[in-house]
Amino acid sequence: MATKVNKPKAKRAETSKATAEGANTVEAKLVRLMKLGSEEESERILGMLKSHGLNKTQVLAIVEAIYREETEIIFGAKVIKGGLQTNQEDLMDEADLASSDIEQGMNMRMANRENFKVKRLHRALDKIREGTYGECDSCGADIGFARLSARTIAELCIACKEEEERKENLSAVGRKPKSLGHSLGSKLTIR
Q1: Are 36 and 42 in contact (CB under 8 A)?
Q2: Is residue 34 in a domain?
Q3: Which residues contact 9 (CB under 8 A, 6 or more apart)?
């Protein structure tokens, strides 16, 4: 007796398999991670970033790293905020109060640095969407995947960063902490 194959069921199985495979593409993963409108938008972004020497898997790895860093900072911020409160016992002794003030100052500075880094991570995601991520802000050269994977918020190539650091070391003015008030271009200002 010949077995009957239910063609609509077989066709649905093939379609769902193709859909599942499509959901695992780099483009589909970027759509989900970055909340893009479509895979076409993802393909457009990947095409622009390819001109900066970044392939699909490298872009996906960087986007995942950016979101991982952001999550770690946000989780850590909850821990830091708990440490910004003064213990009533510390108010009884002047030495304890001074020590508490120093500790709170350090915690606040750390929180400011983390806040600044989250804003820079968001700026990196904006640059990915614009297709300019991986381009040196100073000279326009490609920053390179090795540097970007080590420091996802890098905005300068190694040569320009070394020149900037050399200038900073020559002048006390150049050593001002960026987390205390600095512009990140026309889109973002920290105060």
Answers
A1: yes
A2: no
A3: none
